[in-house]
Structures are given as C-alpha cells and as structure tokens.
Amino acid sequence: MTEGFLLADPPVASLDDFLARGGCVGLTRAGELDPDQIVQEVNLAGLRGRGGAGFRCGVKWTSVQRGGERDHYVVCNAAEGEPATFKDRALLRANPYQVVEGLVDRRARRRRGLPGREGQFRAGAPRLSRAVDEMAAAGLLAGLSLRVVTGPEEYLFGEEKALLEVIEGNDPLPRWMPPYLHGLFATAPQLAWESHGLEAGHHGEHDSNPTLVNNAETLANVPHILANGAEWFRSMGTAESPGTVICTVVGDVERPASSRSRWVPRCATCLSVAVRPARVGRCAACSPGSPIRC
After folding, report:
1. Three-class DSSP category at 192
2. Which H or E run contains 43?
3. pTM of the model
4. How is the chain split into domains, by residue range?
5. Would you state the CATH architecture of domain 15-234?
6. pLDDT tens digits along 169-194
7. What is the C-alpha separation between 15 and 12, in angstroms, rounded?
8. Mean pLDDT on 268-283
9. CB of 241 closer than 8 Å to CB of 54
10. Which region among 11-15, 158-162, 222-226 has the lowest average model confidence (pLDDT)?
11. pLDDT at 3
12. How far apart are alpha carbons 60 and 56 in whole angstroms?
C-alpha cells in the first residue's frame, strides 16, 4: 500500500479489500514488538502530529507510556471544525481501516480506544464504524475495545481536552490539565476541575488514566511506518519534518481537492491539484492551516 499510501484510489471498500492491498502488515509487526519498541520506531521515524501543532509523536507517546497507572486510553481526533478543512474526511472516505489499525498499533496497556468524529460529517461515521466492526469480527483489535463517538458541530470539539469532555458526555470545554496527566474517566483530583465518577461497569478507582490523543492522519501513518520502517518514512519530507502531509484546496478553484504532498510544501504545489498548471503563478497571499512556503 506504499503507492498513494494515505489517500487510497480507489477507496478501500471492505476489510478484505484492505488486506488484499497489504493492510495490517504494520499490525503484524506491532505484535512482534513490545510497547517501548513501537514508540522507539515512531520516534526514529520523526513522525509529527498532523492536527496542526506538529508535535513529535514519539515524545507524546513516551509521556503517556511513562504515566503509570492501571488504565490508559487512546483517542483518535477526527474532528475538523476549521472552515474549509476536510483532510481527515478525505482520509476516512479513502481508507478508514488504516486509522483503526493505527489505534490498535498504539494499544499498550490501553483498555479502550475512541475515535471522535464531528457530527457534521455524517458519511464518515458509518464508514469508520463499519471498519471497527469488521476488524473486531476478524479478531484484529488485539483485545482493544473501540467506540466511535460523534460530537457537536462546534470548533472547540477539535481541541483535545474538550474532545475528552464530549466523550464523557459533557460540553466541549477544554480541561485545565493535559490528557497525559488527567485522562478519560479519571478519578484523580485536578486543579480547577472536578474529577470524574467511577465509570459504569468498572470496579476500583481509575486514578489519572493517562490518555493519548492523536489526529486521524497522524495515526494513519503509524501502520505504514511499522510496515516499511523508519528510514522509509524519513526518505520523504525534510530532516526535521519527515513524511508527507495531506493538503486540501477549496474555494474559488477549478477542482476542489485533497492531495498528499511532502511536509512543508510550497503553495504552488498545493494549488496545482486544484488549478490548471498554466494558471499557477506566484502566490500573492495565502492563509495556511499548517507550515507552508510560498
């Protein structure tokens, strides 16, 4: 699945189709590694978050890994509240299975994984739910319990701490402390915030429940890194920002589209997927949602 590895064309139709295209190779590799080795491979690849901040995933994963406690959670953030943004929607339309695989790959000591999807993207939730159900029926979730959560059509739903609040049934208002210190269903005290009551069906305290929150595109890269190796991933992009990034171009253009480009792409490269090459000149101004060069 290396060619066009994030935006599959044509879209992946089923789990059988996903497996026929080489899916779950990364999952097999993850089963051969211990949790620390998985984190090390992602760290060596230099994968950065694709949700906007560009934070190094290896550092973030290590913080959760060393967080102690008995229960950990992993959350996929696929909420897109920014105007004219649909990269995660394009990703889930093309291949939701790789996102689920990325959640399972990061499964160490985690009892549950929860993909969060904004309610306005009605077509994406059934696709994602079907992928979860098919992979669960095939025994590919490695004991992880996954639940797809849809939330309000509000910008703050995409903020990771507000996303946790929605999963717990509250309004999308950010918490005081980060998820790796005060995670889902935590009963440990938190400054300027109430701790959560015991989760139904669970016996004993949850403590702080360190929780990993990663963007859908970030998690989609993980299976490919495990399947092909860190050096393969570093062969794309730059030394500081390896890999590729999904760019979307919308508005008054000929072909509104999303495409895969190297990290920190040039503006003309992004525009070329939506405007005829002859009409792509020097960019006079742009308002990027991620690192970009004109």
Report:
1. coil
2. helix 35-45
3. 0.83
4. 15-234
5. 3-Layer(aba) Sandwich (3.40)
6. 888 888 888 888 888 888 766 654 55
7. 8
8. 61
9. yes
10. 158-162
11. 53
12. 7
